[in-house]
Write a structure and sequence with these properties.
- With 157 residues, this protein is mainly alpha-helical.
- It folds into two domains: 91 residues, no CATH class; 48 residues, no CATH class.
- The chain is built from ten helices and no strands.
- Helix 3 runs antiparallel to helix 10.
- The radius of gyration is 21 Å and the shape is flat.
- Bound molecules: heme C (4 copies).
Length: 157
């Protein structure tokens, strides 16, 4: 093979991989992807107040961290260390979730369109609390979410 063809072949491989990377990222951002593993959260989200908001909008920790966590989850699942139908999760990141709430609800547009709400809520946040301290039910219906730990087939696990 001449140098030209080798270079062309390498360029093609890079192009395909880059395409797959972008495509893979698109897929891994969708609700459908999250739901594949988080069945209970899906139901609790359907019946929550934020069924109109995508999973990733509340749960992102930024592109790089999302990819690392995603890879970790896939690893845990495919090595049988975590049952995706149970996912007791345990680790949660309320500070990050709370920061993501602010992205939609406490931006400059809101300060302008709803100054009363904005001022009241700025005061609420001054003590360094979290949105979730007062809005714990946001995102997932708490009763449905609790079914996860109550399911008889997981009792004793
Ligand atoms: C391949 C299965 C799988 C997919 C797909 C998946 N998760 Fe997870 N997720 C898990 C597992 C397993 C855990 C528990 C991880 C652990 O033990 O720390 C988890 C934990 C979590 C947690 C708890 C905090 C944390 O990060 O540990 C959140 C929030 C979460 N996932 C959100 C999402 C969102 C949003 C998506 C879609 C972008 C998603 N997950 C896609 C398997 C998955
Ligand atoms: C409006 C914001 C919001 C949306 C949208 C949302 N969640 Fe959540 N989610 C929360 C909050 C708040 C918590 C509890 C605090 C925390 O762990 O960060 C939570 C907790 C979780 C947990 C951890 C549960 C546990 O038992 O520890 C998982 C997993 C999760 N969500 C997955 C999802 C998936 C999958 C979707 C989409 C189907 C979704 N969430 C949509 C706000 C949201
Ligand atoms: C992607 C943007 C987005 C994110 C992220 C988001 N929300 Fe919302 N939220 C909305 C929209 C849109 C509505 C509906 C607005 C309306 O009814 O005026 C809403 C409504 C609400 C309401 C009023 C619900 C009702 O029906 O009474 C509360 C409270 C709320 N959000 C809190 C939160 C909290 C807490 C978080 C973080 C866990 C969060 N939101 C994350 C977009 C978002
Ligand atoms: C100290 C408790 C407290 C904290 C912390 C708090 N809120 Fe609220 N929030 C309330 C109360 C009480 C109401 C209902 C009364 C009202 O609308 O003023 C409310 C109402 C809302 C509404 C609905 C407003 C409407 O017009 O219907 C949204 C959206 C909201 N909060 C988002 C947030 C977000 C995002 C955070 C975090 C930045 C947050 N809240 C932190 C107590 C709190």
């Amino acid at each position: 093979m001449s140098k030209f063809w080798i270079v062309l072949l390498l360029l093609l491989v890079v192009a395909v991989l880059a395409g797959a990377g972008v495509g893979g990222h698109q897929v891994s951002k969708t609700n459908t992807f999250c739901i594949a593993c988080h069945a209970y959260e899906k139901v609790a989200w359907d019946h929550g107040e934020h069924y109109h908001t995508d999973c990733i909008d509340c749960h992102t920790k930024g592109f790089v961290d999302d990819k690392i966590q995603g890879a970790r989850k896939l690893y845990l699942m495919f090595t049988g260390q975590n049952n995706p139908h149970n996912d007791p999760s345990g680790r949660s990141y309320p500070q990050i979730t709370s920061d993501n709430c602010q992205g939609c609800h406490m931006g400059p547009e809101v300060a302008e369109s709803d100054p009363v709400f904005f001022e009241e809520h700025t005061a609420f946040m001054e003590g360094g609390g979290l949105c979730l301290d007062c809005h714990a039910d946001t995102g997932h219906d708490p009763e449905l979410h609790a079914l996860k730990t109550e399911a008889p087939r997981f009792a004793g696990e």
